[in-house]
Amino acid sequence: MSERVCVGAISGAFGVRGEVRLKSFTADPQDIANYTPLFTEDGARSFTVHLTRQINNGFSARLSDIATKEEADALRGTQLYAERSQLPSLPDDEFYHADLVNLMVLDTGGAELGTVKAVQNHGAGDLLEIQVKAGSATVLLPFTKAIVPTVDLATGRIIADPPEGLFE
Fold first, then answer.
1. pTM
2. N or C: which end of the chain has fewer CB within 10 A?
């Protein structure tokens, strides 16, 4: 498991005074401000975050050391990471998306199906994007208890019971 977890992303400047448009990936979107300092992916920069208002698809926010629109625009697309130790512990049946990526996926008979490439959510629930073992194709597997009965982070594997024909 990585020491940092992606909790948000900057989608550009908001206004002309150095505020940014901030997308939050936390369960309670406003909690992103509680996990500061937030780091860039490479860890080279860190920011404290002050949410100023809610806007469409996120928040406007002030970041430490960002004072101009140009500085805010330069951060467009930057993902922000929090230290895992700052995040709340999860119940046994919940997982941080970052912990699922790169896990091996096996079917209920033990045959390898592939590895988790990403976790996506388009509004109807989480989907595991599985890189199929033989080939470059990916398959979207619904991440429900019925289809994915076992996630074992300690051994790095997921047991899945995919719908008939999904991996053919």
1. 0.76
2. C
